[in-house]
Amino acid sequence: MNHLIEKYKGIHPGFVIEHLLKKRLLRKRPFALSVNEYPQTLNAITKGKRSLNTALALKIEKQLDLEQGTLALLQTYFDIEQETKKLDHPTPNLNLLRTSLFWDTDMSKIDWNRQYKAVIKRIFERGNEAEQNEIRRFYGSKKIKTAVQSDTRKHYRTFHK
Question: Distance from the CA of 12 to the CA of which of 22, 119, 121, 143 falls in 20 to 30 A?
Fold first, then answer.
């Protein structure tokens, strides 16, 4: 197996491309144009905001003289890593939560464990009974109580200074 794959397995291939371009003193815009790609697309890929498709991976590999399939495999390993993280960090049943409750964010990007206080607060302020029950099932009463108490203490300190 290619040493790049072993070294960067699980890392977004865009970061690897960025590293290789800097190492070879190549600027992104001219490089993107040399592989018949929009500079904005390459920029989004190198920032990890967009996936690298196989066709573009092959063009970049050829231009950078990399072994064929290296970047495509890195993308696959990255995708596997992301899915594994989702399995390790379960989410509430999203079919029971209206997306309109989270109008200001992408629900797939919510870290349900780190952002639990904001989620609980929003569901209990704006959610219906079914949504509140799902949040109770997912977090448990102890975590909900902690979130509500910390919010109450903040509210109390704000108005009783």
Answer: 119
Q: Any idea what DSSP says for residue 52?
A: P
Q: Which of 57, 65, 48, 63 is nearest to 10 (CA)?
A: 48
The answer to whether the CB of 71 falls within 8 A of the CB of 16 is yes
Q: Structural domain of residue 37, as residue ranges? A: 3-88
CATH number of the domain at 41, please: 1.10.260.40
Shared-domain flag, residues 111 and 38: no
For the chain, counts of helices (H) and of strands (E): 9, 0
Helix axis angle, 129-139 to 141-159, nearest 10°: 110
DSSP 2: -
Whether pTM exceeds 0.70: no
Q: In this structure, are 56 and 84 located in the same domain?
A: yes
Instruction: Note whether 40 and 74 are same-domain residues.
Output: yes
Six-digit token string for 103 = 């109008």
Tokens of 21: 């371009």
pLDDT digits (tens, 9 = 90+) for 14-49: 999 999 999 999 999 999 999 999 999 999 999 999
The two structure tokens encoding residue 60? 């970049």
On whether both 67 and 108 belong to a single domain, the answer is no
